[in-house]
Automatic annotation (TrEMBL):
<dbReference type="InterPro" id="IPR002376">
    <property type="entry name" value="Formyl_transf_N"/>
</dbReference>
<comment type="function">
    <text>Attaches a formyl group to the free amino group of methionyl-tRNA(fMet). The formyl group appears to play a dual role in the initiator identity of N-formylmethionyl-tRNA by promoting its recognition by IF2 and preventing the misappropriation of this tRNA by the elongation apparatus.</text>
</comment>
<dbReference type="Pfam" id="PF00551">
    <property type="entry name" value="Formyl_trans_N"/>
</dbReference>
<dbReference type="GO" id="GO:0005829">
    <property type="term" value="C:cytosol"/>
</dbReference>
<dbReference type="InterPro" id="IPR005793">
    <property type="entry name" value="Formyl_trans_C"/>
</dbReference>
<dbReference type="GO" id="GO:0004479">
    <property type="term" value="F:methionyl-tRNA formyltransferase activity"/>
</dbReference>
<keyword id="KW-0808">Transferase</keyword>
<keyword id="KW-0648">Protein biosynthesis</keyword>
<dbReference type="InterPro" id="IPR044135">
    <property type="entry name" value="Met-tRNA-FMT_C"/>
</dbReference>
<dbReference type="InterPro" id="IPR036477">
    <property type="entry name" value="Formyl_transf_N_sf"/>
</dbReference>
<comment type="similarity">
    <text>Belongs to the Fmt family.</text>
</comment>
<dbReference type="Pfam" id="PF02911">
    <property type="entry name" value="Formyl_trans_C"/>
</dbReference>
<dbReference type="InterPro" id="IPR041711">
    <property type="entry name" value="Met-tRNA-FMT_N"/>
</dbReference>
<dbReference type="InterPro" id="IPR005794">
    <property type="entry name" value="Fmt"/>
</dbReference>
<feature type="domain" description="Formyl transferase N-terminal">
    <location>
        <begin position="15"/>
        <end position="213"/>
    </location>
</feature>
<dbReference type="InterPro" id="IPR011034">
    <property type="entry name" value="Formyl_transferase-like_C_sf"/>
</dbReference>
<protein>
    <recommendedName>
        <fullName>Methionyl-tRNA formyltransferase</fullName>
        <ecNumber>2.1.2.9</ecNumber>
    </recommendedName>
</protein>
């Protein structure tokens, strides 16, 4: 809290009702509590997922519903991070299933100066927005108006956005349509995955929220804000089970974005040897765009006979098509496996690194050959490369894209690096 605010004669302790649920909300709660000499978190509202009938018993009570953690566990409830925080810090907690008129009247009786909303999960009725003395303010973890909705960080990553914004906004009756008080840029074009990016944004957003609250205190609620345009707005829909499935009809770039956007949870997955395989961290590059890459010199994909014992070769399959594709790697002919082979992708290892060959329908052709190896076949290594095993070679027209898998998790197993997967899991399954 700034010295100016501390020394202001007209300064008063501001009363806040906090609404939040997930871990994303915790940095803001910590920051507000650290400033409790000037900020009073008088009540916390958190959505607790669980069985509907149990939720009704808990959620419909407006008065004394502060259950102990043990009582919550006995009710088979999932404990939210925010709930645990409230219990640990002796803050009154409410867990309604929805914001009813009774809930609104109760909040009105508290006479809050602000309602602060961070990753709450419940819709706020329009008549709640006028309850606080000043505003209902929300920390929105992505660009506005570009991404409005439930999963703005994930959708921004999936769309390939290089930059996003972190916004503190005044809530109105629309979905993330209110005036923006403060925004800061955040670079998405990095090696971090969603979980790490979300943590960064939550930490930055907590400091932004405190700064906004300080300004509201200092200027008695008179603050500058920018009205949003609706131009260029996209709806960031909630992540579904279908979103988790890797579809090898998509481009390698989009698959890489999906891996980045869903890691570590829920995780983008495909099938490997009839088990679910989550791909959790990847590196993407394109032969089309990086014509200075010489794969032969880098010894990434042009494999000589001495390296044959050090590689594995297999296929990943799109889980949604697992019943439609049957890959027989022992088939001794030159026929392409199936017309819909694009629903799978070759995976191989070399030098303790794992690679997936990705390409769209127009860019990939795969054939088995009987010969043990072939060499000096291709004149342009930027468009073609070969893989060979002891039994046969695989000719790949990869006028396209490669994904290197950095971290992955087989069904029922731990998160492994590529090296751990090759030297641990694969060797143990031989």
């Amino acid at each position: 809290m700034s010295d100016f605010i501390k020394n202001s004669s007209f300064y008063h302790k501001i009363k806040i009702v906090f609404m939040g649920t997930g871990e994303f909300a915790l940095p803001t709660l910590y920051t507000l509590l650290e400033n409790n000499s000037k900020i009073d978190i008088c009540e916390i509202y958190t959505a607790i997922p669980g069985k509907k009938e149990i939720g009704n018993k808990i959620g419909n009570k407006i008065g004394n519903n502060k259950f102990s953690l043990e009582q919550k566990k006995n009710l088979n409830q999932t404990i939210s991070s925010v709930y645990e925080f409230g219990i640990a810090n002796n803050i009154n907690i409410k867990t309604p299933l929805r914001i009813t008129e009774d809930v609104i009247n109760h909040i009105r009786s508290i006479c809050p100066d602000l309602i602060v909303v961070v990753s709450y999960g419940l819709i706020l009725p329009e008549n709640l927005l006028s309850v606080p003395k000043y505003y209902c303010i929300n920390l929105h973890p992505s660009s506005l108006p570009r991404w409005r909705g439930a999963a703005p960080i994930q959708r921004a990553i999936m769309a390939g956005d290089n930059m996003t914004d972190i916004c503190v906004m005044i809530m109105d009756k629309g979905c993330d349509t209110g005036p923006v008080i403060k925004r800061e840029n955040y670079n998405l074009d990095n090696t971090k995955v969603f979980g790490e990016i979300s943590k960064d944004i939550a930490e930055i957003g907590a400091k932004m929220m405190l700064s906004v609250i300080e300004d509201i205190i200092l200027y008695n609620g008179i603050i500058l804000s920018s009205i949003q345009s609706n131009e260029g707005s996209c709806y960031a829909s909630k992540i579904t089970k279908d979103d988790e499935v890797i579809n090898f009809k998509e481009s390698g770039r989009n698959i890489h974005y999906k891996i980045k956007a869903l890691s570590p949870n829920p995780g983008a997955y495909c099938l490997f040897r009839n088990k679910r395989l989550k791909l959790l961290r990847s590196h993407y590059f394109s032969l089309k765009e990086n014509n200075n890459i010489n794969f032969n010199q880098n010894n990434l994909f042009f494999l000589d006979e001495t390296s044959l014992n050090n590689i594995f070769f297999d296929f990943l399959i799109s889980a949604e098509n697992q019943h439609n594709i049957k890959i027989d790697q022992k088939k001794d002919d030159n026929k392409i496996i199936q017309d819909n082979l694009v629903l799978s992708a070759p995976i191989f290892s070399h030098n303790n690194r794992i690679f997936i060959i990705c390409s769209s329908d127009d860019d990939i052709n795969l054939n088995y050959y009987n010969n043990n190896y072939f060499s000096n076949i291709f004149s342009n290594m930027f468009n073609f490369f070969s893989l060979k095993t002891k039994e046969r070679g695989l000719l790949c027209c990869a006028f396209g894209e490669i994904i290197e898998i950095i971290e992955l998790q087989i069904e029922g197993g731990k998160i492994l690096s590529a090296t751990q997967f090759i030297n641990g899991y694969l060797k143990s399954k031989k």
